[in-house]
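NnrS family protein
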Amino acid sequence: MNNPASHWHHLSAAPHRGMFLAGTLQGVLTLLWWVVELAGRYGVAGTASAWSIAPTWAHAFLMIYGFFSFFILGFLFTTFPNWMNGEKIQPRHFSASSLLMAGGIVLFYLGLEAGELIAAAGVATLLTGFSIAIYALLRVLFGVKNQDRRHSIAASLALIGGWLGIAACLLWLLTENRALLDFSRSAGIWFFLLPIVMTVSHRMIPFFSSRVLEDYVLIRPYWILWLMLACSAGHGILQLWEAAFSYLWLFDLPLAASALYLSFTWGLLRSFRVHLLAVLHIAFAWLGLSMLLYGMQSLVFLASDGTLLIFGLAPLHALAIGYFASMVLGMASRVTLGHSGRPLVLDKLGWLLFLGFQAAVLFRILPDILPAASGMAPGLYMLAGLTWLICFTLWAVRYAPLYWRPRVDGKPG
């Protein structure tokens, strides 16, 4: 049955398939677009292009809301009901959500060339699909009783933060109010991505570890999750107030300490025995390191009376590529393998691609951390983008076909 109808049947057979496929295609597109943009900007190939939206702002939107969102929602569509023994997400909801969000991204790309109004139409379409996803997940949340809903509530609040960020971007495109753009970018990181990825990490990493590591003691204190979520929100709020940059360390360092403690407690070193588990632990270790960089950056800024800013955008990229992207790819690989009926084993190629992602993080942050490497910054930025693009494209070639093919074990879904 190698025909479009058959492919659509399989794509709509499980809630993660459509979202993961759209996220995979968007990941390749946005990385390719960004590498081309960098090549023109630094005079490597071609010339800098004129877009209707500043490339840095478009890059942030395409990554935060147009790449990570697909994988996060696809993952939650699958696991959210399982967390609470709730009702499964309805096909009409996950199909409509993924199609609208994918269509919104296409319009946004067109708008980069055709004008801000087309881009705004794309953001509005994406927001509509995102709204359907939140509605579907909240129906599950409010439909269960006598179940532990703590992780689900935290994830739902983070999704609402993401919704507000997309809405703010839409209003910015319509009004050109810079405060709305600043809120959209800050909300995307600190009210949406970081809270939801931390919540998933807290729920799943100890659980997966306990399934494959011998004599593993599952430690998952909720107080530390609430502390980390509060620190994320605190950082996001202070970041909206430029004068408060000197005090970000008040939230960043406790968050760094909490994450590093959990990395040690959850068994980072032991996880290397199982590569599919190790990728999650390595990704989580980037959280502690990135927040440590953020905290040190803020402290130095405070000590120098606002005259010295170290590390540049290194903390952001350590967080976004090191933690978010690595965690998303680790979780997506696990879900894709498991829900296609394949063994939960990360093969040699998958492990090498993940290590390539880690190299991309280092290429991106080293020029901002080491003064000796600052002169090579354009080249290293290009190398980081190319490394990520190549590794992710190879990952996409490997995994994307599984979304429109039936399970190998013959089971439904």
